[in-house]
Amino acid sequence: MRPTATKDGLRPTDYEFRRVETSLPSGSAEAKWLACRDVEDFLGGIGRGFKYLLPIRVTDPFDPASPIVVNTGVLTGSEIMTGLRVYFHGYSPLKRTHDNRPLAMWSAGSDKFGVKLRGTGADELVVTGRCDRPSVLVVRHAGDGPAVEIADGADLVGLTTSAKILRLADRYDDAHFAVIGPAGEHFANNYFAGIALSTQNMLRQREPKMRWCGRGGFGAVLGSKNILAIVAQGPDPTWKSAKAIAAVNQEIARGPGSRKFRDPDKADGAGGTWSNYVPLQDVHAVPQYNFRPRDDSPAYMFRENVEQEWPVVDESCFKCGIACWKDLSEPSGEKTADGKPKPGRFLAKVDYEPLNMLGNNCGVNERAPTWKLIAECDELGFDSISCGVVLSYVMEYNERRPGSTLGGGLRYGDADGMVRLMHRIAAGQEPDIGKGTRLLSEKLGDTSFAHQCKGLELPAYLPETNPGYPWAIAGGHMSMRTFLLLLMEGKTDLDYWVAAIVEKGLYTVRDDMDGLCKFSGLGDPKVIEAIRESTGVALEPDELKQAVQRTYLRAYAIERAAGCDERDYVLPEQTYEPNPWVKLPSFVTRDFFAALRDRVNGRFDQLVRDLKLMS
Questions:
Q1: Domains and CATH numbers, the chain
Q2: I need a surface site. Which of 102, 228, 519, 614 has the fewest CB within 10 A?
Q3: b/e for 371-403, b at 16 or more Cβ within 10 A?
């Protein structure tokens, strides 16, 4: 991005961004500067992404003409801490209407790939077409801007995600990488393949410490274009620094907004997403056995219990002081001063979702097998949430039908069987399972315990505690912030939940526009300050809020235009079966949800009309 004026008090429309449109298989690329016509163009991320996708209709996400859009936010690559995000947008093979039409969404990831993409001179990359052979898309800085070339990727075929990244790192200096695993290579039978991003720690330590653009199956979309990897090669962007920026960074690193994601030795941090286990298990709301909690085994996975046996170390993304990563290693045999085991060989990166989805929710209540499952899932290139949920569906299906051989007859707690089945899915040998929970359950004729909304598997929070799930426009907890409200606030009335969705929950997508990590925890005033100090543009609070609202509503409008109706805004049937083990109010009845749906859709539909977002 660059300003087109030198005056004081710049406006968003005083900037322009550079889009690079690339056509495969030739790799011919056209880079063009485009004026920012509004706040969304200026902020970037999904603000621009959904404006681009709004007029496009796709019937097959694997059609070569179906675009994949890779872009950054205004603060990506800036001096603002956590300004690292990169966004992959397009039409998802997983997220679909009731009559099987693909829907638009995005997936976001951190560390340095987005920074390097920005360093090439590209703010946005649009890729269409398909390569004739396995290929690598290389975007590099070439003097006055980005240059694109297609390199041979034959030697990457079949490699795991980390092996692809490390091989490319040996080939391309001063670069970062977005790669698919074996699952994405077999895209036609793997709808929940993700995209792994290289990290500074990974390249330095040569250990499998990837970040992820996991949700929605964009690894499969990239695989359908015969692109095994994208290389972003260029200098780090240079930005001005100021005292005000240092103050914002201090707020991010040690302020109350990021406290949950820091470790206790960093200004009384709460320990990261892993810490969700304790308050949720206190009310028996940690998902188990395909979202039906029934015992106390999750306590075995509490971090304070795990650390007595297994070394856990927090690490950070590039230049981030929060250090939300939790690296788990084999014990070295030595002890720290406080008696905890010292780390040996790295095993897995542990967050709440993969730990739960591949562990307790699949009936795996042992630690070492869970670490292996997390690592295998990453190396094969799966989204851990979708992978865990589809496997737990298979287990529940088989438990209800003792003679079933679905997925090799997989049963709860069979970690070795899960690994074997994951490898078969990644190799394209289990097409029904590899296409996700919704399509699998519909084919089998039993959708009642299929935990998905619009085809996208639910994250690790019980649906009976979150009736906002159907209005998540991407990941169920990252694009509609209602997932912990019942636990935190305990409200169950209809007016509260309508307001929670329409007036509050949708605004969580702000940081899917500006390039910051959601874990920064910044309020709007600090985000506005960060943007002003970095770009000279002084947004008004209402400008920012309205741009976020319009962006969410564009995504919702795309759903409606594709044919989403009351059959799509639904919860899993199992939601309406009270679980006496759960110690939270059981309030989501069919009548309650029907009334909620009518009011929420009515409000959103009216806003789309009022804002004239659809022609």
A1: 2-233 (3.60.9.10), 247-610 (1.10.569.10)
A2: 614
A3: bbbbbbbbbbbbbbbbbbbbbbbbbbbbeeeee
